[in-house]
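Re: (2S)-2-hydroxybutanedioic acid structure - here you go.
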Amino acid sequence: PPEAVPQAPEDPLFGLMRAYKADTSSNKVDLGIGAYRDNNAKPWVLPVVKKADEILRNDPELNHEYLPIAGLAPFTSKAAELLLGQSSAASAEKRVASVQTISGTGAVHLGALFLAKFYKVNGANRTVYLSNPTWANHNQIFTNVGLPIATYPYFHKETKGLDIEGMKRALADAPERSIILLHACAHNPTGVDPSPEQWREIAEVMKAKQHFPFFDTAYQGFASGDLDRDAGAIRYFIEQGFELVIAQSFAKNFGLYGERAGCFHFVSAPAPDAADVTTRVASQLAILQRSEISNPPIYGARIAATVLNDAALFAEWQENLRTMSGRIITMREALRGKLEELGTPGTWNHITDQIGMFSFTGLTEAQVAKLRSDFHIYMTKNGRISMAGLNTSNVEYVAKAIDSVVRT
Ligand code: LMR
């Protein structure tokens, strides 16, 4: 029947991108979507990605055949190594199953689908606990596969930092064996990460309740500029003996947004039959993958694999990562500095305390709307700004605009 399909609202983030593109003002500033921009507000193709692209294009053997169901092995194995480290006991003990996915979104989805089918206690699905707030897409990805969702406190409104006590209390109160979604680094949308000590506390509560960690990592190396540091939480949880899963995106840290290069990893807990468990999990993931996408797209994975498997290119990639994270840190300092110089009411230290692509400014929905209507500055209505949208030419304009809306 015609009424069976109601009109759905437009995706807020992609709607924002469309509105920005349609705006003809020469002052317009895009602080919406989480995609890196250079100091000229232009997309940045990483120099190392250009090199890898050239190597691939000059390869006379290159073809467009299907990948295996689990993806490009030189990509998935290095993707796992990047997260787990070179001397990972989990890898040595064959406790890791990796499947190439349609970027991070596809990895979260594959994990959600897998858990919806197999992670049942007494026949019932477990609830997935998401941070409040979280990346908007998390809600619908888990809901779409029929997993119930709930939230745990995360952002502390007054300090604009982590509500560690609220978070730990909620994790302790959640039913045993709940699924807990954790952002490995550079939390989206808040830019607030637990300290190493706070990660230990979180792991302790989760262990006591036998919770199941579901890591989402989209900013390794992009957050701090240090690949190992940004994988610290994941490595710690694995060392603590958790069975867990990881959704990994290469969109941001390789600038491969539209190429959709990502990976899903299952890591089993240390046990005599752990390698068997992992093999069985891999076999089920292959069935899910085949029925959904058959096999993953090849080009982005080839680019990443070319870089990850070559020592010189890998070093250059790390340099490129430091360029991106370094420029973002400079912009954090500049925005905070300008706001403090202007004496804008409120405190602004959170802008430099937060990390990664985003800052959760604390601006209200009304202030965000005013920034858009009066100043042509675009950000999501929760007050999140994509730091990469700032540059030396517009940071003062943005600071003055924020100052103006905060005072009205
Ligand atoms: C964002 O949050 O802006 C990015 O992760 C892009 C997306 O897909 O939502």
